[in-house]
What does this fold into?
Amino acid sequence: MHSSSEIIRNGLWTNNPAMVQLLGLCPLLAVSSNFASAFGLGITTLVVLTASNLVISLIRGVLQENIRLPAQIMVIATFVTLADLSLQYWFFDLHQRIGLFVALIVTNCTILGRAEMFAARNPIRYAVLDGLMMGTGFLLVLLVMGTIREILGHGTLFANFSALTGLPDMTLNVFDGRFLLITLPPGAFLTLGCMIALKNWIEGKQQ
Amino acid sequence: MKELVLIPIALICAVMVVGLQQVTHERIDANQERFEHQQMIAMLPDPNETISQESTLFRTFKGSQPTGLIVQATTDFGYNDKISFWLAVDLKQEIRGVSVIRHRETPGIADFIEGQWLDQFQGASSDNDWNTSSGDFDNVTGATITSNTMITGIETALRELKESSERDAQ
It folds into this structure.
């Protein structure tokens, strides 16, 4: 059986979807070139993951083994579509930037993975907590990568964040240089690789 | 038969998606339009410049051979309001046809601008005499302003089209 603290630790650190399970890398690598996009997609993924975990846990009693996957994918696709429409409704500018990847959330293995491995076998409150924590773990990795890549690649931080969220402008100009490699896909792999290495190093020290 | 539970699940999913789409689509379309407008404004350096949509350009083809252009033009000097019309020209900038899309001219009196009266412009070019009282094109008695506006509007659209094509060619 699971305890809440175990679920929290799993999602945020021990079994982090991006750094340990290495799931959902396509959106992770694609939108993490700046903080604003990373934040937008991270939050959307968090919401979809929590909502789909909730519903799948709710209907787990009526689902047989052979129709479980189609039902789960249907639920996930529905929530992704709802999130996509909501983004276009409230945050159109944000949707212009990350719209392509919002639709791709449905193929984010993290979500189907959590649905099948956790939500379909656990009570609702644990499933929701798991969704929230896995989503937060994913969001945090996105934010760290977005911060690093925006500072090194563009020399700014929080650029466009105001336009996307309606908050006042808080663009920080960190330095004038631009490290092009970091903004390109290889830069995303390098950044993620460094983060995983750092995580493993910390864990090695603790033991 | 427990598999049939998929049907209600699918139905609920479909209803949710269609429902939200119905609720949101108007504002989403408006958002899209506003975004496109912003992108247009972003190309203008002077913040005081404004944009009004006066013309739209289409290219016509037969197979892959270009046959000419169709442009949407608007004249501001109708009897009651603006008159918008399509103007089709061939590659020699001769008129292939004119067709009025939008106008608020007096019903009954100005109906001719939707009919055969426009046929007289077929084959015309900027070489014609576009003078409204002594030129190549007939006015309609009792609707002088509408006739003159159409003749002048077509000539203006034709001239602007020709000038912009010549600019493109250079």
Remarks:
- The first helix of chain A runs from residue 4 to 14.
